[in-house]
Amino acid sequence: MTQLPAERKARLAARAAQDKRATDLTVLDVRGISSVTDYFLVCGGRSTTHVEAIVDAVRAELRTEGIRPLHAEGVAESGWVLLDYGDVLVHVFLEETRVYYALERLWGDAPVMELDG
């Protein structure tokens, strides 16, 4: 398996999600406050089809670098899909599910990664 720095992995995943017009995309740098992972990418989709498209794009983008998720759970119909890349966790929500879980509020102490574009 290819080793890619966590920040680069998070940026590639963010770019793929942006390319699919994910809503309210945020990357939280949780290195200083979480022992579970280094980055949370949190974004939304307007429909289950949109969530699936975002998830597929992130998987495809990281696969081009030889990176596959260690674990994935949820389906678009449930309102939340999680892709676990070890040092990067990708959360793709339906907009209303995202509001309910409010991960950004839960991890409010985490700095937000600046993204180009």
Molecular structure report:
- The protein is of the alpha+beta class.
- It has helices at about 5-20, 50-65, 95-100, 105, and strands at about 25-30, 40-45, 70-75, 80-85, 90-95.
- The protein has a five-stranded mixed β-sheet.
Features:
single chain; alpha+beta; 5-stranded mixed beta sheet; 4 helices
Helix content: 25-40%
Number of domains: 1
* CA distance, first residue to last residue: 29 Å
* CATH fold-level assignment: Beta Polymerase, domain 2
Structural class, by secondary structure, is alpha+beta
Please give the CATH class: Alpha Beta
Second CATH tier, the architecture: 2-Layer Sandwich
Count of beta strands: 5
**Main sheet makeup:** 5 strands, mixed
The poorly predicted ranges are none
User: Radius of gyration in whole Å, from Cα?
Assistant: 13 Å
Secondary-structure element sequence? Answer: HEEHEEEHH
Specify the number of helices.
4
Q: Name the CATH superfamily classification.
A: Beta Polymerase, domain 2
Strands of the biggest beta sheet: in what spatial order?
1-2-5-4-3
What is the typical, i.e. mean, pLDDT? 92
Would you kindly provide a brief summary of this structure?
The chain has 117 residues and is an alpha+beta fold. Helix content is 35%, strand content 25%.
